[in-house]
Amino acid sequence: MMLYIGDYLADFYGGFSVFQYLTLRAILGALTALVLSFMVGPIMIRKLTHYKVGQAVREDGPQSHLAKAGTPTMGGALILVAVTVSTLLWGDLSNRYLWAVLLVTLGFGAIGWVDDYRKVVYQDPNGISARSKFLGQSFIATVAVVWVYMSASTVTETQLFVPFFKDIVIDLGLLYLPLAFLVIVGSSNAVNLTDGLDGLAIMPAVLVGGALGVFAYLSGHVEFARYLAIPSLPEAGELAVFCGALVGAGLGFLWFNTYPAMVFMGDVGALALGAALGMVAILVRQELVLLIMGGVFVLETVSVMIQVASFKLTGRRVFRMAPIHHHFELKGWPEPRVIVRFWIITFILVLIGLATLKIR
């Protein structure tokens, strides 16, 4: 919105043309989302507390978590509000990539909201059934990837780029559809599985989102993309504004979610954030880099898969509890230690992901 207002006002005063700069709008998007989070956060927490929108804790989880029962949840709505308002304010609203990622984020957030609502109102820690949740995710992801595929204007938008190798490019064709689907749905559920400790999921999401914003900006710049041998996607640059808003909103939420948490993200935030990261990754053609940078999310998901498979096949558990962050808790690690160490691991993995820009 401010892009168009700036264009109009630039006819009267040239200084307003500064809003044409993508980097400035991305920074302002982050700051706007951060300020919105600080302003709306306390109000939302008071409302959630007043209406007793408290977390229902699973009885089969770590005993230390029982004390968290009743802590306000559904705080992820704060992230969605901040990201949406900031993106609409500073983004180019004619950009199809921007609308694709924003609508996918809100769609998955709506599924999470329904899940959280059932947990809060009916005091059911399991929320909606796994099948219903997956069907909802599948519908939104399918519509999104088909629309992006059908609207693609260049073959680059449907190719698979292998990190560290500039000459390995795979033309996916129709295989783009299942790959994109798996990235969006898989990323959404991976972040949701990770969201089990105070601040554990949000900081890795912020780090990965910020790095994807760098990829988006560079891919949207013809000269930078050519120099770095990465996909040249002119429309992708605008995703830097969305990623900036995600970083600002995430840090603002972390202010209230850091240990001991004043509010929990809930599925409304976790499912939406994961889907957002997955959608941005496929739009900037960095699915494999997302796999690297989101290694903590991958580890959490794989730990659950291993635990379930082992128990069904042998009757034994590999981990004391899955996802794996609970395993470390039951080994005696204090919750803050688990959280910060997973943050450090993500920081390292994000640096490795960014290194793929030059190491090819």
UniProtKB/TrEMBL annotation:
Top EC category: transferase
UniProt record, GO biological process: cell division; cell wall organization; peptidoglycan biosynthetic process; regulation of cell shape
A GO molecular-function annotation: metal ion binding
Keywords: Cell cycle, Cell division, Cell membrane, Cell shape, Cell wall biogenesis/degradation, Magnesium, Membrane, Metal-binding, Peptidoglycan synthesis, Transferase, Transmembrane, Transmembrane helix
Lipid bilayer topology: Multi-pass membrane protein
Keyword tRNA processing: no
Pfam families named among the record's database cross-references: Glycos_transf_4, MraY_sig1
Pathway: Cell wall biogenesis; peptidoglycan biosynthesis
Compartment(s) where it occurs, according to its Swiss-Prot or TrEMBL record: Cell membrane; Membrane
InterPro entries the record matches: Glycosyl_transferase_4, PNAcMuramoyl-5peptid_Trfase, PNAcMuramoyl-5peptid_Trfase_CS
Parts of the chain that traverse the membrane: 22-45, 66-91, 97-114, 134-152, 164-185, 197-219, 239-256, 263-284, 290-311, 338-357
Reaction catalyzed: UDP-N-acetyl-alpha-D-muramoyl-L-alanyl-gamma-D-glutamyl-meso-2,6-diaminopimeloyl-D-alanyl-D-alanine + di-trans,octa-cis-undecaprenyl phosphate = di-trans,octa-cis-undecaprenyl diphospho-N-acetyl-alpha-D-muramoyl-L-alanyl-D-glutamyl-meso-2,6-diaminopimeloyl-D-alanyl-D-alanine + UMP
A GO cellular-component term linked to this record: plasma membrane
Transmembrane among keywords: yes
Residues that, per the record, bind Mg(2+): 192, 267
Cofactor(s) of this protein: Mg(2+)
Known EC number: 2.7.8.13
Superkingdom of source: Bacteria
Function comment: Catalyzes the initial step of the lipid cycle reactions in the biosynthesis of the cell wall peptidoglycan: transfers peptidoglycan precursor phospho-MurNAc-pentapeptide from UDP-MurNAc-pentapeptide onto the lipid carrier undecaprenyl phosphate, yielding undecaprenyl-pyrophosphoryl-MurNAc-pentapeptide, known as lipid I.
Family: Belongs to the glycosyltransferase 4 family. MraY subfamily.
NCBIfam families assigned: mraY
Protein name: Phospho-N-acetylmuramoyl-pentapeptide-transferase
Taxonomic classification: Bacteria, Pseudomonadati, Pseudomonadota, Gammaproteobacteria, Candidatus Thiopontia
